[in-house]
Amino acid sequence: MAEVEDLVCAWQNKVRLDARIGRGLPDAKCDPAGLQNALVNLILNARDASPDGALVSISAAAIVQGTDTFIELRVKDSGIGMTRDTMLRAFEPFFTTKGTGLGGVGLTMVKHFVEQHGGGVNLESALGSGTTVILRLPAI
């Protein structure tokens, strides 16, 4: 997480990061560098969806589902949010709201990374109210 915070600091106040990671969490069963890349993609999206600067909150908690334990990461931004139609297409390769040739693979890569490690990803968003991306990765 420190590496992600260092990178965000280099963006010169375009993004304020509020990380709340509980102590004593089990490790997620995933590639740490891949997780950093996924978080950076989500923070970049938050930055782009927040023309006046973004507050991005990242929280993590252990969630028990049946006999399995998952690490749930919530990445919430204060950006413009998404319409229902945009949410339905958000994980499609090369779908973007940024204009031709300006992205469209970040959320696809995040979803692929999480699913590759046996987890899942969900979106919560409303136009004008920001977006929360929820990553669930199996715990070790």
Keywords:
140 residues; alpha+beta; Heat Shock Protein 90; five-stranded mixed sheet; 4 helices; 30% helix
Describe this structure in words.
The protein is of the alpha+beta class and 140 residues long. It has one domain (2-138): Heat Shock Protein 90, CATH 3.30.565. It is 30% helix and 31% strand. The protein has helices spanning 2-9, 32-48, 84-89, 106-116, and strands at 15-21, 54-65, 68-77, 120-125, 131-138. The protein has a 5-stranded mixed β-sheet, covered by helices on one side. Strand 4 (120-125) and strand 5 (131-138) form a beta hairpin. The two termini are 18 Å apart. The model has no long low-confidence stretch (mean pLDDT 86).
State the shape: globular
Examine the secondary-structure arrangement and name the CATH architecture: 2-Layer Sandwich
Number of separate strands: 5
| Largest sheet descriptor | 5 strands, mixed
Beta content: 25-35%
Q: Stretches where pLDDT falls below 50 for ≥5 residues? A: none
Portion of residues within helices: 25-40%
Q: Going by CATH, what is the homologous superfamily?
A: Histidine kinase-like ATPase, C-terminal domain
Class per helix and strand makeup: alpha+beta
Number of domains: 1
- Helix and strand sequence: HEHEEHHEE
Average pLDDT, rounded to a whole number, is: 86
CATH fold-level label: Heat Shock Protein 90
N- and C-termini, Cα separation: 18 Å
Strand order of the biggest β-sheet: 1-2-3-5-4
DSSP helical segment count = 4
